[in-house]
Amino acid sequence: MDVADLRVFEAVSRQGSMNRAAAELHTVQSNVTARIRALEEELGTALFQRHARGVTTTAAAKRMLPLVARLTTLLAEVRVAARDDGAPNGTLMLGSLETTTALRLPPLLSQFARAYPAVRLVVTTGTTARLLDEVVEGRLDGAFVAGPLSHPALRQDVVFREELVLVTAPSIGDPRELARIADLKTIVFEAGCSYRKRLDTHLGELGVILSKPLEFGSLDGIIGCVSAGIGVTMLPKAVVAAALQDGRVAVHALLPEQAQVDTLFIRRHDAYVSSALGAFLEMAKPEAMPGLAA
Length: 294
Prior knowledge:
CATH topology of the largest domain: D-Maltodextrin-Binding Protein, domain 2
Order of helices and strands: HHHEEHEHHEHEEEHEHEHEHEHH
CATH class of the largest domain: Alpha Beta
Number of strands: 11
Strand content: 15-25%
């Protein structure tokens, strides 16, 4: 079985089209079609169902895809290991919550960039659920996510500890007033955000009836909508400190068991730890940055 054929298979599965996969792989459609047919003949089973709009994966293909993803990740790690001479270099792919990126990471990333200029550091933001999937599937070397979580493929270390608060418009003096607001909206990140689940639970305990949430991809958008009285949110207290000081929002304390949330750094147990990742992990230890950990 040729690894190149498996890469073609993965591209077709993801794109849902032989033509789009060919464009991604910088080849012609006839080459993609020939490779898929050869792979199907070797395996003795159909991998795709052809139709006018492209292709869909068969049950056999769906069973193969996680294994192909693992193989692709392993081959990439082999290349990294072969070139890793101990001096941090190459590309380091990290993920982070939007709130962690805004609040905690700038000093750490700046320090790392100064110490290891040969490393190309790429940071993408997302929800805990999405970042977890990307680490498990090998698209990220590691990520900062909200705890608690449990996954057999992952190692996790507590890096930061945050205090969550309920954030409302300045006119709300007591969160119990929210129960009298008809069709109150929550202003949140997309589905998969762990703060969002805590917010829904807390408002339910206050007897608040919620309407459909408004989802935003940016922290500034969420704070702006809350400030305008459109709805409420739940965020780390330090994230909204400036908006609170400016009088744009009000914050309301939660019970200790609701307020405390750990930010974890997650990575795969079985992944190769490059010199770049090892250097970053050493720098990100709480004892290495005591001013950021609390």
